[in-house]
Amino acid sequence: MASPSMTQNVAGNVVATGTSIAASGTSTAVTVDATSKFEVQLQFDVLTGGTAQAAGTYTVKVYRVFGAGPTIDNVPVTQMQISMGTAATHYIASLALPTGKYSVTLSNGDSVNAVTFGITSSTLDAIA
Question: Does the model's pTM come out above 0.70?
Answer without folding.
Answer: yes
